[in-house]
Specification:
This protein is an alpha+beta fold and 130 residues long. It is 42% helix and 24% strand.
Length: 130
């Protein structure tokens, strides 16, 4: 049984769709269940602590082919990462996403990792392209 949060994000996903002119893309899939998640990033720069500029996720979008849990955790992940520094976004854990979801059935916990892995891949791809 899914929580209200999961059902809301499944029925009304936030940040859904491709991001034109994205700075980076990350994609992960699970051959066992067939879920595929693609994360698009637009990275901005702002004043950080002191005088150093800090790169942050200005915009983030996702495309997910998968079950209700996969779509919901992708939506929750994009909300958690938007506006965060790249370092903060890479530190988002599956436990954070599961907590934001109000819990997930044990068989669906792997869904939360796919999104996190795709986000980290997108950030790595961005940093390597610089």
């Amino acid at each position: 049984m899914y929580t209200k949060q999961v059902l809301d994000h499944f029925r009304n996903p936030r940040n859904l769709g491709a991001l034109k002119n994205s700075d980076a893309i990350g994609q992960k899939g699970n051959p066992a269940c067939g879920d595929v998640m693609k994360i698009y990033l637009k990275v901005g720069s702002r004043d950080g602590d002191g005088t150093a500029k800090q790169e942050y996720i200005q915009d983030i979008r996702f495309e997910t082919l998968g079950c209700a849990a996969a779509i919901a955790v992708s939506s929750l992940l994009t909300e958690a990462a938007k506006g965060k520094s790249l370092k903060e976004a890479k530190a988002i854990t599956k436990n954070r996403i599961i907590e934001d979801a109000g819990g997930l059935p044990p068989a669906k916990i792997h869904c939360s990792m796919l999104g996190i892995d795709a986000l980290r891949e997108a950030i790595d791809n961005y940093q390597q392209s610089k």
